[in-house]
Amino acid sequence: MEEGRSGASNNIEGTVKWGGKMRSVVVLAVMVVIVVFGAAVQGSGASPQPITIEAQNFEYEADGMVVIATGSVRATRGDFVLTADHVEADLRSETIVATGNVKIRRGSYEAQGDTLHYDFKRDLSEIGGASGKVGEALVKGRTLRAEPGKLTLDDGQVTKCNLPEPCWHIGMRRVVIYPGEKIVADGAVLWIGRHQVVPFPRLVLPLRRKGDTETVLWGEDMPVPRAGYNKDDGFFVGVTYKYPTLDDGKMTYDVAYLSKKGYQGSVSYKRDMGQNLDLKLSLVHQTWKGTGGGVELDASLPGYSIEARLKREFTSDGTLDSIPSLRLRVAPVAVGGLNLTLSGTAGFGQFWEEVTGSRGTRVDFSVLLREREPVNLGHGFQGHFSAGLGDSRYSTGDVMRTVDATVGVARPFKMGSIGVGYHRLWVTGKTPFEFDAVEGVDEITGNATLRVGAGPNPWDKWELGVSANYDLAAGDFSDVDWTLTRHMHCFEVSARWREKREEFGLDIRLIR
Known about the structure:
16-stranded antiparallel β-sheet, mainly beta, 18-stranded antiparallel barrel, lipopolysaccharide transport protein A fold, single chain, disordered N terminus
């Protein structure tokens, strides 16, 4: 072993180790840094972490105060790892400049770029022409500044699509990423392909840990617009946005415009209170009806859930006040060794309905029996069935009972599926309200889907779906729905037409 040369032995400790091939290791331990950090942590007995640099070649300048490393350079400090073709360390300014195939890794994120400037004292790095990965989120930008627990990206984008040209991304003026916590973007715009879809002055998306990786919950939290038409509302456009709060709650904002009615908006706050208890506060305003809202409290127990409501909500013809309502739900339980499950609900509520002027209480229960797994009928056919009973009693003396039964057969195949069924609902008695009124049903149901390729990639497909209900008593179709969906690598676009309701809708759904 041969001692490595040092221009300033007080500042640099170095050795040159010989083996199968020469490899040099330099440990930077700047005396001024030791003094500064030592003063800050003197009571704790801690010392500043040094930077270890490994490379094939070293050069020293400025009396050893500048170290130039070339050839497979690797610098480490704690969990911070830097690799590059060329690294220049200045012990006077306590900075490092790296160029050529620059890559860094720290905790759950990794990045690469053209150049890197690293401030030893502040533990702060800045990469030019940066791209990288934070958990499952892919980022790119003009500059990326990284410091412990925080990443700042200027003029960049975030996506989860790993194609060279992402199917979608969020472009933003500036984004701050807190690994394991959230992404905060200013001046954000959602892009689908090369098209701007919707802008957001400020966008916050939570990062949640799943297993050993961190992922953005795009499906739940990404604000994606909706648009469509129906004969009651006219043309409508709207968007829903979920905003995480500092207390681990979530604010949900929804705004929409309906050409035949006007504007509507709502805001709600939901928080996990612990002990399997969820609290939700909501407020909604419609320019043609007024203001409503309420309080909801949900408790979950093994096999059970309890829902409590105190709220005013809008129906198609007016308002409905629940003051209050309670509901107990029993999760499906297996029936012996049979392929059956049994579930049930029971509820109590006091209601006031504007459209009928009815006011009173309701006590109700229902049970549902259905198959646990689809019944194998052979040749790829699967059967399903269900049977339910319901009973509702009102303070007005009214009683309404229902018996509900369905049976059906479905056959999935490589390019789609087909199914047919029968639905029968018997109703006796009546309800004094309109919101829970039901009518008897005697109908045949059917549905079919067909998927075909739309390009060279396996995920690029068109899917056509149709479902219909035929009313046996009326001798006519009661509903016919058509859906056309384009499946892409990272998102789906669906156009929906409901013939009898004269309703058209356009939906965009991100799937990764």
